[in-house]
Write a structure and sequence with these properties.
Shape: globular
Oligomer: single chain
Distance between the termini: 35 Å
Structural class: mainly beta
Number of strands: 31
């Protein structure tokens, strides 16, 4: 389920980031389990409100001459309520929570006023009447977001042996004015709105078959609806490198409908020193989508002068049908043995098998077996040593498969033109989009590597924990993760690059070059398959490594005070951080190796809970991180993130 839960209904988070249990699968990274609150025989509720007014905001730090006196206003409020209690004493309980957050602010455009003036003069003079955007702006523009989270939980005890849990969750997220992660040089016309609605129903039936056997049956049904709308729905998009982007962006105006169904069953049995658990799971995710990315066309210009003269470097537009319908079905089976070998030694040994049935035409990987091993040893009452190893198989994101289904060259494709061909299209279309493909321009398609295998990670962990005092402990943990067969996109239709010389420049389609460019490797206009321009293939050729050392100090609740402080030093390396990343040179993937986009070298977290003298409980959490960018301090008390 994609639904978000209000913190008011969350009892605790459990992070599973090692190979201790074969029960967890379907993700190559760590798993996060959320335990929700349940009602009791006593009614209990909470109400809260958080208000932030823009008058307390600082001046914009990255000011320009156009906005040096601008102080963008950010107004936010967040309010919520929760209530839990009995419907039938000792038998049926409920717990519900609802939360609403709204934010209104002003975004600032970094487009230089001189650039705005030149472009508007051209557009107003009718230079390019085919363009859907005939006016751009600088300065500030309104942005807004609103999110509603509602959830309810019902617990019913049929008897001492059987209990039922049902939970419904609803999330409605709306973003206006800045929905596409646009940059600072994007005009309002290149921005847009996003609407996301999630609903999920989950349930479980726990049955005690005997004093040594417990069965747990679980299910969930969930839906997701996403609509993306651009401010300019006509197109095309205009991108003047380093100066401005306006018009319809490449992405947007899409609709997605996902349905999730899942059922799982597990049984645990205690036999002497062994707690044996086995289970199976089956899930199905279906997608019905219309994703017209690129259907409005995009022109890329190297300079403002090139836009004035109508000389784009490149042009790209998609044609065909953006509609797709696909689904994947996943199956999993696991067996786990928790063996209390001795009073101070525990061993977890297990294995898991996963299979994901992809759409027709995709490779079906059938050998995804994951061994899991965990050890815990206590040499004395004050020390605990832990170690674990496990392989975790991942699942492919539907978005990565959808592109290969949609733009396969039959349902849809992209036409790409460069140089003089792009300039001719721009002038013939009077700066607008094309209604039909241009003959003699190669088609670009997406496809999936035929032997595509399932991505997985191999995780190894070591840890030590020492009890400093009855309620105070310190721990150190090391985690190594190796990502294997990770997805990336690579253009497999390019000829191998050659060194540029004065003699071969014309044959490579390079009319103007400098002395510094001589000797550099460049790609020519030729293609391995002349029927296509680009063949962007999804393949499992990427890999990653993660090294992380965490040191934590924990105080259990005592004398109305508890806290946790943790510092993590880590390093993440990869040669592709996401499935849609293209390498600079598809023939030299080794050179892509470097710090990951997900790399975060340092992270410090402190959280605590304490009672105020008049009996009200206060919760404070402070987070400091280095390597990620945050926008603001969210409050004097509560959750804070800071980064240099």
């Amino acid at each position: 389920s994609r639904t978000e839960l209000s913190p008011e209904i969350v009892r605790e988070f459990r992070v599973v980031n090692n190979g201790l249990s074969a029960e967890f699968g379907g993700a190559a990274g760590g798993s996060i389990n959320v335990v929700t609150k349940s009602g009791s025989n006593t009614f209990h509720g909470d109400d809260f409100i958080f208000v932030r007014n823009g008058i307390f905001d600082a001046k914009e730090p990255f000011e320009t001459e156009a906005n040096e006196h601008v102080e963008p206003q950010v107004n936010r409020y967040r309010l919520g309520s929760s209530l839990g209690g009995p419907l039938r004493k000792d038998r049926t309980f409920f717990y519900e929570a609802i939360e609403q957050e709204s934010e209104r602010e002003e975004g600032i455009s970094r487009i230089q006023p001189a650039v705005v003036s030149v472009i508007n003069n051209l557009l107003h003079a009718g230079a390019w009447p085919g363009n859907g955007t005939q006016h751009i702006t600088d300065g500030t523009f309104p942005e807004a977001s609103s999110e509603t989270e509602a959830s309810g939980k019902l617990d019913h005890h049929f008897s001492d042996r059987h209990s039922l849990m049902l939970r419904y969750a609803y999330t409605n997220n709306r973003i206006s004015g800045d929905a596409f992660n646009t940059g600072a040089f994007s005009d309002a016309s290149a921005r847009g709105n996003a609407f996301t609605k999630d609903q999920g129903l989950a349930g479980s039936l726990a049955s005690v078959a005997s004093a040594r056997t417990v069965n747990d049956l679980r299910f969930q049904f969930a839906t997701r609806r996403i609509t993306l709308r651009t401010d300019d729905e006509t197109g095309p998009g205009i991108d003047i490198s380093g100066l401005v982007s306006f018009g319809r962006p490449y992405q947007g105006n899409s609709r997605r409908r996902e349905n999730h169904e899942e059922v799982s069953d597990s049984v645990a049995r205690l036999r002497g020193a062994h707690l044996i658990k086995a289970g199976l799971t089956a899930s199905h995710v279906s997608l019905v989508a219309s994703t017209p990315d690129g259907f409005g066309g995009v022109y890329v210009f190297p300079s403002l002068a090139a836009f004035r003269s109508g000389q784009p470097d490149s042009f790209r537009q998609a044609f065909g049908s953006p509609a797709t319908r696909l689904g994947v079905t996943s199956y999993g089976f696991f067996v786990q043995d928790h063996w209390s070998a001795r009073r101070r030694l525990a061993v977890d040994l297990g294995a898991r098998y996963d299979f994901e049935r992809l759409p027709a035409g995709f490779n079906q990987d059938t050998n995804d077996i994951s061994p899991r091993l965990g050890l815990a040893f206590s040499p004395s009452t004050a020390w605990v040593l832990r170690a674990g190893f496990g392989i975790f198989y991942d699942r492919y994101a539907l978005a990565s498969l959808n592109r290969a289904v949609e733009k396969d060259g039959v349902n849809a494709f992209e036409a790409v033109a460069e140089g003089d061909a792009a300039a001719n299209i721009f002038k013939q279309a009077e700066g607008g989009s094309l209604q039909t493909p241009v003959p003699l321009i190669g088609r670009s398609i997406f496809r999936v590597d035929r032997p595509l295998a399932t991505s997985y990670s191999a995780q190894t962990s070591f840890g030590v924990e020492h009890l400093l005092a009855p309620d105070l402990s310190i721990s150190a943990n090391y985690l190594y993760v190796r990502g294997v067969k990770l997805p990336r996109t690579r253009n497999i239709n390019l000829l191998e690059p050659v060194a540029l010389t004065a003699e071969n420049a014309a044959a490579l389609g390079i009319a103007d070059f400098s002395a510094q460019q001589i000797g550099r490797e460049v790609f020519g206009p030729g293609r391995l398959d002349p029927d296509f321009n680009d063949i962007d293939e999804l393949e499992g050729s990427s890999s990653s490594t993660y090294h992380g050392l965490s040191i934590a100090l924990n105080r259990r609740l005592s004398h109305e005070v508890e806290f946790s402080a943790a510092y993590t030093l880590s390093r993440t390396m990869d040669d592709a951080s996401d499935f849609d990343e293209q390498p600079q040179d598809p023939y030299d993937l080794i050179d892509e190796r470097g710090l990951s986009r997900n790399h975060q070298a340092h992270r410090f977290v402190f959280s605590g809970t304490f009672d105020l003298p008049f009996g009200e409980e206060e919760d404070a959490a402070h987070t400091a991180s280095r390597g990620s960018r945050t926008r603001m301090l969210d409050g004097l008390f509560g959750h804070v993130e800071m980064a240099p």
